[in-house]
Amino acid sequence: MKKPFVSLAVAAGLIISSAPAATYAKPVEAVQKQAKHGFDHKVVNNLNVENTYNHIRYLSQTPRVAGTPEEDNAVRYVKEQFESYGYKTEIQEFTFFGYTPPNKIELSAAGFDHLKPESFTYGVNGNITGDLMHAGLGTKEELAGKDLTGKIALIQRGSISFGEKVINAAEKGAAGVIIYNNAEGSLNGTLGGVDERYVPVVSLSKAEGESLAAAVGKGSVTASLKVEGAESGERISHNVIATKAPTNKNKAADGVVVMGAHHDSVPGAPGANDDASGTASTLELARAFKDIPTDTELRFITFGAEELGLLGSEHYVNTLSQEEAREIIGYFNMDMVGSKDAGDLSIKTVDGKPNIVSQLSQSSSTRLNGTPTPLEAGGRSDHVPFFEAGIPSASFIHTPTEPWYHTPEDTLDKISKEKLLDVAEIVGTAVYSLAHPDNQGPKTNKAPKKAAPQDRHEQNLQ
Ligand code: BES
Ligand code: ZN
């Protein structure tokens, strides 16, 4: 006689019924039911967090900015590790348009000591001297009828973009531009992209800018401005892709489960947590799975240039054919998964709705920890391009984030082995509930769709 079916999620008090008219409702329940019968230990027993920690130790020796030799070194390391576990490993190269900030910025003005200028992303080099001229907000209207030939335009932040201010002043003949803040704090902006009309530009704080403006109001002030070492151009970054083929070659393929993280960091940050932690966890999951038979293909990917706008994951997803995208059952993203100083673990989906990745992870966290890891809406990482291509995806992160996020203090000593292990266990057992032989789950994803891009990084354009 058939036993009445009670899904684990329901038993655990999870509200799966809040899922959208779930294409996956049945298969997810079937997978969850099977998982209850105890496959978790096969993965959990294989994980050794000392390996994860040692990968972070290696990777976080330097920042790993996309397109730099330090990223190349991380890529080589990740590839060698995947290969040492016996996986077929591919390096996927892609290009992007990059900007290297200046290594020298100087600003001096008669009567002013110790000005602290900062640069703008996409700003150009130059070495100029000229009289300061106050140019208001630098709008076209304000500059109409003004001649700025040879002058350094002093412009207040606000109303139009930084890039427009520089172009408007340059078109009136300015040799350089200073943009000062309209609020407290330093101004770290971007011109939004390259433009051949730009002249050298630096930023100043509100207080510095206002005192220069006051001096200009009283008489002529000569200033010198120097920007050196800035460089725009094509750069190369890489994704690293390791494949674990389905174990039983005689069976029809059961789809692909993908897990991964980004290996690049922001400039100046060793990125122990962001995201050597996710990269190292991807490596340790790959090692843990190497001798475990699976019916689905497993794919372990580390992405480049995430910090520059999810470029690596976007490139990866764009290179998939419709058929290849459909074969991917789900993508598990790990970004910032080991900080001692961050809050509790959460699962982010781009639309905040449950999908097969979040549901299986909530089930596995319930089995392992007694409570489901909470599901929240969130983008800002490599699960976004998968979502936009119609592939179920979710990202693991501890929130609130640690104070060291994107700083030079994001170092190994801030890493918690306990947190790392918790995430690897939740992801590994959720993946295995889909991948183990004979599970009754979905074999492929439904037809991929293109959704509108959303929740990207808002740049400091104004
Ligand atoms: N790991 C972060 C994402 C993050 C940080 C999510 C804090 C939630 C809280 C990621 O590496 C990152 O910094 N992403 C960029 C977005 C990207 C599109 C450039 C960001 O959030 O600024
Ligand atoms: Zn990150």
Description:
There is one protein chain. The chain is 32% helix and 22% strand. The protein is α/β, with parallel strands linked by helices and 462 residues long. The chain has two domains: 39-99 and 233-435, 3-Layer(aba) Sandwich (Aminopeptidase), CATH 3.40.630.10; 104-229, Glucose Oxidase, domain 1. An eight-stranded mixed β-sheet has the order 1-9-11-10-12-15-13-14, sandwiched between helices. Strands 2-8-4-5-6-7-3 form a seven-stranded mixed β-sheet, sandwiched between helices. The structure holds ligand BES and zinc ion. Ligand BES is lined by residues 274-275, 306-307, 309-310, 335-336, 380-381, 397, 401, 405, 456-457.
Helical segment count: 14
Structural class by SSE content: alpha/beta
**What is the overall shape?**
elongated
CATH architect. name of the largest domain = 3-Layer(aba) Sandwich
The largest β sheet comes out as: 8 strands, mixed
Pfam families: PA (PF02225), Peptidase_M28 (PF04389)
Domain Peptidase M28: 239-429
Organism: Mesobacillus zeae
Signal peptide: 1-21
Which helices and strands occur, and which strands form pairs?
Elements: H1 8-11, H2 25-36, H3 40-44, H4 49-59, H5 69-84, E1 88-100, E2 104-109, E3 118-119, E4 126-134, H6 140-143, E5 152-156, H7 162-171, E6 176-180, E7 201-204, H8 206-218, E8 222-228, E9 231-244, E10 256-262, H9 272-289, E11 297-303, H10 311-318, H11 322-327, E12 328-334, E13 344-349, H12 356-369, E14 375-377, H13 383-388, E15 393-399, H14 417-435
Parallel strand pairs: 4-5, 5-6, 6-7, 10-11, 10-12, 12-15, 13-14
Antiparallel strand pairs: 1-9, 2-8, 3-7, 4-8, 9-11, 13-15
Helix pairs in contact: 2-12, 2-14, 4-9, 4-14, 9-14, 12-14
Bound molecules: ligand BES and zinc ion.
Zinc ion binds next to helix 9.
